[in-house]
Design brief:
The chain has about 230 residues and is mainly alpha-helical. The chain folds into 2 domains: about 70 residues, Homeodomain-like (Arc Repressor Mutant, subunit A, Orthogonal Bundle); about 140 residues, Tetracycline Repressor, domain 2. The protein has 11 helices and no strands. Helix 3 crosses helix 4 and helix 6 runs antiparallel to helix 11. The N terminus is likely disordered.
Length: about 230
C-alpha cells in the first residue's frame, strides 16, 4: 500500500485514467469488482478505527493500495461509501435474522438466530463495528430505506416471539426486550472484542472463542425463556 497526497499528481491521474478505461471495458468486469471490494474493506477498517468524520479519502486509498480518485470514481462521495459499508453489514444481518422464523420450534429458531448473528459479526468485524458506532450516534447517516428494512425485519421477529409466548411455547416475557437482549449480547463480541482478548490472553478472539460465545449466549437465553 502507498500513501496518496490530497491533490493527485500527474502520475496518479494517469493511473486513474487507466483504471477507468479498464472499468468501462465490457471485457474487464472483474477489475471493477476487485477494486470495489478493496475499497469497501479499507473503508470498513478506517471508519471502524477513526469514525466517519475523522476518516479521509486518502486514508482509505492508502489502506486499499489504490489511487484516491478511484474512490470518487466508484462511490462519488465519502458519504456514499460510508452507506455502502453500513449496507455490507446490514444486508447479511437481515438475512441472518430470518433464521429465527425458519422453524416452528422456538428452541431451534433461537439457537439458529443467535448462531447466525454471531457468525455474521465474526465474518464482518469492521463493518459490524461501524454499524454499532452508527447506532450509538443515533443513526444519523443511516438511510431511511435501511432503517425501514431493519424495522420491518425486527417487527417480524418480535411477532414470531410474541406468538410463541402467547401459545405457551416460551415463558412469559416482553418480546421486544428479549430481542434487544439478543441483539446486545451478540453484538458485544464486536464492541468488546479487545476485552475478551484480554481475558483470554490472546491478540484477538478466534473461532473457538466465538463458538463458546454462541453456546454461552444460547444457554443464557434458553435458560430464561424455555418453559419449565
Amino acid at each position: 500500500m502507498y500513501a496518496q497526497p490530497d491533490t493527485p499528481s500527474t502520475a496518479n491521474e494517469g493511473t486513474d485514467a487507466h483504471y477507468c478505461a479498464l472499468d468501462q471495458s465490457p471485457g474487464n468486469p472483474g477489475i471493477r469488482r476487485k477494486n470495489q471490494k478493496l475499497i469497501l474493506r479499507a473503508a470498513s477498517e478506517a471508519f471502524a478505527v477513526t469514525g466517519f468524520t475523522a476518516t479521509h479519502s486518502h486514508d482509505i486509498a492508502e489502506r486499499a493500495g489504490l489511487p484516491k480518485a478511484n474512490i470518487y470514481y466508484y462511490f462519488q462521495t465519502k458519504e456514499n461509501l460510508y452507506v455502502q459499508v453500513l449496507m455490507s453489514f446490514v444486508e447479511p444481518l437481515v438475512k441472518a435474522s430470518a433464521a429465527l422464523r425458519k422453524s416452528d420450534d422456538p428452541i431451534v429458531g433461537l439457537r439458529a438466530y443467535i448462531k447466525a448473528r454471531i457468525r455474521i459479526i465474526r465474518e464482518h468485524p469492521f463493518s459490524a463495528a461501524v454499524f454499532s458506532q452508527e447506532l450509538l450516534s443515533g443513526g444519523k447517516h443511516l438511510p431511511e430505506a435501511c432503517k425501514n428494512l431493519l424495522h420491518e425485519e425486527a417487527q417480524r421477529n418480535v411477532a414470531c416471539l410474541r406468538n410463541w409466548i402467547d401459545h405457551g411455547r416460551l415463558a412469559p416475557c416482553d418480546p421486544e426486550h428479549l430481542m434487544i437482549f439478543i441483539w446486545s449480547s451478540t453484538r458485544t463480541y464486536t464492541n468488546l472484542a479487545w476485552q475478551m482478548s484480554q481475558l483470554r490472553g490472546m491478540a484477538e478472539p478466534d473461532k473457538a472463542d466465538f463458538d463458546r460465545a454462541t453456546r454461552t449466549v444460547t444457554q443464557m437465553v434458553l435458560g430464561g425463556v424455555v418453559p419449565a
